[in-house]
Amino acid sequence: MDPNTAGWVLIAALALPLVGAALMLLLPKDDEVRIKRFAVLVTGVSFALVAAMTAAFDYGRSGELQFVTDVGWIDAINARFHLGIDGISLPLFFLSYLLPLLSAIYTTKHLPEPGKPKAFLSLMLLLQTGMAGTFVAFDLILFFIFFELVLVPMFFMIGMWGGPRRDYASVKFFLYTLFGSIFMLVSFLAVYFQSGLRSWDIVELSNASMIGSTTFQTWAFLGMFLGFAIKVPMWPFHTWLPDAHTEAPTVGSVLLAGVLLKIGTYGFIRIALPILPEGALRFAPVIGVLAVIGIIYGSLCCLAQTDIKRLIAFSSVGHMGFVMLGIAAMNEAGIQAALFGNIAHGVITGMLFFLAGSLHERYHTRDMNVIGGGMLMKIPRYGVLLTYVAVASLGLPGLAGFWGEFGAMWAAINPGLGLADRFGGLYLALVIFAAIGTVLTAGYFLWMLQRVNLGHPTEKWAKAELDDVMRIEWVAWTPLLILVLALGVFPRLVFGVQDAAVTVLLRTMGG
Amino acid sequence: MPIDFLAIAPEIALAVTALVVLAADLSLRGDAKQLVNPLAAIGTLVALFFVARLWGDERTTFAGTFVVDSFALAFKALFLLVLLAVLGISWRFFAEGRYFQGEYYFLLVTAFIGMLLMPSSRDLLLLFVALETVSVPAFVMVGLRKRDLYSSEAALKFFLIGVLSVALMLLGMSFVYGFSGATGLDAVATAIAGLVAAGTVEPLLLAAVLLVIVGFGFKISAVPFHFWAPDTYAGSPMPVTAMLAVASKAAGFAGLAIVSFIAFQPLAGVWAPILGVVAIITMTVGNLGALQQRDLIRLLAFSSVAQAGYILLPFGVARGGSAAVDVAVNSAAFRSVLFYLVAYAVMNLGAFGVAIGVSRRTGLRAIGDYAGLGVRSPLLAGAMTVFLLSLGGAPLTVGLWAKFAILEALTVDVTTFGLVLAGALVINSVIAFFYYLKVVRLMWMVEPAADAPALQPGANLTLVVAGLAAATLVLGVLPGLVTDATSVVTFAAVR
């Protein structure tokens, strides 16, 4: 696999889940065991391919596109089928193959009501192609297709296998995201015509000299901002998220938090910032303020929740706020922290949603008051895992959550591209509020642990037969548990890969 | 003056077909009567053959009033393919419904002759004749279920509004003739350009232009001429509804494109903003109306009003000048209309096809009857999902590219009005998804009623629906199959 020539790897990696979904439809409906095994096989083979690609990736040139395919696609509008991968895309691409594999393994034991594994798993595979594609598409139109493709399977996943309010949640999720993404498309078109290049190529547009006037860039950035900010989601566009997460089946939540939300921040970093640097510069303080409001608001909402899954969903709003704060800093450290925070949040929160799903399988409720404490006594291994991941999520140094939060605040103290001179005071205030947010985050996670883990099991559960962590869960979770520690102890695992690519990115922004 | 018979060969083929169908209906008895359907299909294929034979040619005849160019041929091919699909979904429906089959097929083919004439017309009078040839058979077809009160009401409503708008259009045409002294579209354009240059454009001329546009506004069911659409669609036999919603509307757009981009192009500064505003109102009214519906056909009717609004949007950015950027805007606007119509034909015919399949022998047509369709008939439900998502503009369906083409036309040269139109399209797309998703959700996420009758869509219809669904998806991945063909469609008049 030569990274200079082997463009087929990315195509194969994207096609495998699609082909797998199509083949799965041919399997007999009643043979559920074989269907589940087949899903594990497909996601496993795809993951193996991506792992091999990760090994073959030339880390010395991580700032350049590798495994490139660039062929004509729709000639009438000059859209090209342009795939490639660099240091920024690689970790996210890797994650979008790891999580579906783990989800497929998890599903062999825990299939959400009302069953139908064939439909469920083929939708998951379709979703996988969509989300993985966004990270390697280097043509705006192709990116948009993948970006939108994600909506349909997720809509069905929430709508068919979701909780009691699934109708509302699925439609809200779909319409909200769609709304933003079409504005984004309008911006793409405006950029296409304004640049004069007649090209949708992200690399070409990033390297182009200033596209349009500052006013044009501001408006075009606004369109992209709507698309990506809803996807992230940033406060005040976040309201679809708690509903979608609460109602979605476990696997849906894992993929939603683990990969889907990352598409928004990735879009900011890959597309909006380098193509419209002037617009980004104008928006940076706004993004920073909204990000910090998100941090505080998310934490306060968490303190008010009794449903563990909803609590984790709101914690996502806060964590993505830190990621956006890193972006708002507009310097190398900030972008690095944002990308790291992305990965860390994907791993940690994905894992938290697995835990919340398994909790529901055991207690048939997620209400902390009903559970009433004592999990460390009743199901000790599970309790330990919950503690470990929750502590990682609140940003304990030495675990994955720390670097993204710390890096974002550190970067925002001294924002780049001249922001320090004009908005230095504002950014300092933002950092202070973000720091208060970290305290609140620690507060609600510790409070949650206190309410469910500590104490004695209530009378209701004391006699109940509850399984501790099952073998299949260990298999599905171990990779994530290891990653949480590995990324915390050795952050260069991600920072090192991204470094050159982020430098290139900032150079195109003129910083 | 010699007549170029090859140039009008498709129309001749259809005319002969119409007569053969009528004669065959007289001579066939009982069940054999349904053979007129394949007869009509054969005639359509012959006409299609002539269109293929003419492809790439540029011909004019009848003293320049009838033109065959890539634009006209693209529309003719579209109409004939739609006719084939309508014949496919009509067969069982009319054979089983105690209709007068011969009359129906005769009227259907006749209406399509008018449609074939429309994109070739370069004269106000020929345009009028073409429009009436589409409308008059349609009035009768809507009322085919004579004993059904709804059908009669639908026909009457359709007829009255149709006649009114045509009368207004004729009035407008006569004024235009008075100002320009010509009925040929090029001559009208030259005369109007002269008036514009001399600065002597009278308000009456502007009124005349708008009156002509009104006539087409009725055909494409633009607000405020849309009132007939929901009732007529709901009351007509379903294949007729499909024909009205797709073919007749496409013909209206072809005619509107011709008069506005050729004859009235110098005055685009006046009519473009008006059509833009009409487009916004049309799609908003259509979408808000669709939200309230309980009958699937009425939902599709309102949705097709909204779709007409989308297709009208590019007219809103048309330019009167002849600088390079104006030409670029006009031709992008024009191509987006053509592409949207192709996409619209595929997905909307498909949606009506599924509706016919579900109601065949069961009479089900309420939206609630679609509950659990995914269990009762996965194929129909899957196809309907594809069509509805495509109408909304979801990825991997042709509908996304149709919306894309329109947004592209609106942003070729960024203007405030263009962005307002684009914003209206975005907001409306979201509203539209709300009711499309409502149906999708019902089909897949709700259990079917216990006493739901078994569905018998019939092999013929299943084939048509499956073909249309496949086309929706294939074009969704490779829109180039159409865009590459339509990119050669240069409109001679977009100067």
Keywords:
heterodimer; A: 511 residues; mainly alpha; two-stranded antiparallel ribbon; 2 strands; 3% strand; B: 495 residues; 19 helices; 74% helix; disordered C terminus
Protein model, in words:
The complex is a heterodimer of chains A (511) and B (495). By secondary structure, chain A is mainly alpha-helical. Helices cover 74% and strands 3% of the residues of chain A. Chain A contains 22 helices and 2 strands. Chain A is globular and about 70 Å long. Chain B is mainly alpha-helical and 495 residues long. Chain B has a domain at 264-495. Chain B is 74% helix and 1% strand. In chain B, strands 1-2 form a two-stranded antiparallel ribbon. In chain B, a hairpin with a 4-residue loop joins strand 1 (59-61) and strand 2 (66-68).
Specify the helix fraction band of chain A. over 70%
Q: State the end-to-end CA separation of chain B.
A: 29 Å
How many strand units of chain A? 2
> What's the count of strands of chain B?
2
The number of helical runs of chain B is 19
Q: Write down the Rg of chain A.
A: 22 Å
Mean pLDDT reading of chain A = 90
By helix and strand content of chain B, what is the structural category? mainly alpha
Q: What low-confidence regions of chain A span 5 or more consecutive residues with pLDDT below 50?
A: none
Please write the string of helix (H) and strand (E) elements of chain A: HHEEHHHHHHHHHHHHHHHHHHHH
Low-confidence parts of chain B: 491-495
**Biggest interface and which pair forms it?**
A-B, 36 and 37 residues
| Cα shape of chain B | globular
Strand content of chain B: under 5%
Succession of helices and strands of chain B:
HHEEHHHHHHHHHHHHHHHHH
Structural class call of chain A reads mainly alpha
- How many domains of chain A, as an integer? 1
Summary of the model, kept short:
The complex is a heterodimer of chains A (511) and B (495). Chain A is mainly alpha-helical and 511 residues long.
